[in-house]
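Please fill in the sequence for the structure shown.

STRUCTURE ENCODING:
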């Protein structure tokens, strides 16, 4: 049952088992429900990709539309048909992408609460599994792209905004390694 999954993943993917324990009773053992849930999460991920790109390229909407459309139709994962197993990947991917969106919004609005939620979702990604682990460094590039400042100020602000996320990355990495 779900408790056994938590114990199974406790050493390699500590919070992934908890995600199973939460979703299995909610969704149930019906494959078609898992398929629908997976399609919805994949669609949500494409919407999040569109939002992220729109926040970086604010003047032209076409790159965001094409990138999100490609993200939606390109399989990337060849085992989408095993929805019970792989829906959880999209839940974590959506958490990570939402974290990127919120961190960009936090910088633009100078909002500490948004930053904390973004940081929490980043930790969910890092602590749950390793598939999207190094995508965390993409956040640094996003921060660089959205800050339109002179070079020295841009470097300083990009570093300052990224430090909490880097700290979370190092902290979770050490925790998982030890």
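FILLED IN BY: designer on duty
SEQUENCE:
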């Amino acid at each position: 049952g779900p408790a056994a999954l938590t114990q199974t993943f406790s050493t390699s993917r500590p919070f992934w088992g908890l995600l199973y324990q939460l979703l299995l009773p909610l969704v149930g053992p019906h494959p078609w429900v898992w398929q629908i849930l997976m399609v919805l999460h994949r669609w949500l991920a494409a919407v999040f990709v569109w939002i992220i790109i729109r926040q970086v390229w604010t003047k032209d909407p076409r790159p965001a539309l094409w990138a999100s459309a490609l993200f939606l139709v390109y399989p990337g994962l060849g085992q989408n048909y095993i929805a019970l197993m792989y829906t959880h990947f999209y839940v974590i991917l959506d958490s990570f992408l939402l974290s990127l969106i919120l961190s960009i919004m936090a910088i633009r609005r100078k909002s500490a609460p948004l930053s904390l939620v973004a940081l929490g979702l980043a930790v969910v990604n890092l602590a749950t599994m390793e598939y999207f682990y190094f995508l965390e460094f993409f956040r640094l590039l996003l921060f660089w792209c959205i800050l339109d400042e002179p070079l020295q100020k841009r470097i300083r602000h990009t570093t300052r905004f990224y430090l909490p996320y880097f700290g979370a990355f190092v902290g979770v990495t050490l925790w998982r390694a030890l």
